[in-house]
Design a protein that fits this description.
Blueprint: H1 2-24, H2 32-44, E1 54-64, E2 67-76, E3 85-94, E4 97-100
Length: about 140
């Protein structure tokens, strides 16, 4: 009887420990939505982009451990797909979130649109979402 009681207590302790370990596992962040949130945090930090006027969608992701390569599409709301652009991002896992890594080849990571023959110098092409002025 004493031996059976020890066996039951040992099983209960083992089951409790396994339950605690399972509860400590974090949800996977290897999702397009987690990548999209990281890109939005990164771009929001700039403060000069009209993100509310854009549809932002993660098209492709490649997860490799603590790194991720992502292709993200930016499309002005209400505009045809041709009016949008795609950007490549490299992200690194930091805790339980992704963080966009700087691209040493492009400064801030976005290139200005090509000059449009219809737009005077210094103005955005037709259909471009509003951009807040840069403080001087």
């Amino acid at each position: 009887m004493k031996h059976a009681l020890r066996w039951i207590v040992l099983c209960l302790v083992a089951a409790s420990l396994l339950g605690m370990l399972a509860g400590c596992q974090k949800a996977s962040i290897d999702t397009n939505e987690a990548v999209r949130e990281a890109v939005l945090r990164h771009l929001s930090a700039r403060g000069d982009l009209g993100l509310g006027d854009l549809e932002i969608q993660v098209l492709n992701t490649k997860f490799e451990g603590d790194r991720c390569q992502a292709e993200v599409q930016f499309l002005p709301k209400g505009q045809p797909a041709e009016a949008g652009m795609t950007m490549q991002y490299t992200l690194a896992r930091e805790g339980d979130v992704w963080k966009v890594q700087p691209n040493p080849n492009s400064g801030h990571g976005m290139m200005p649109p090509p000059a449009s023959p219809e737009a005077p110098a210094g103005e955005m092409p037709p259909g471009h979402p509003p951009v807040a002025p840069t403080p001087r």
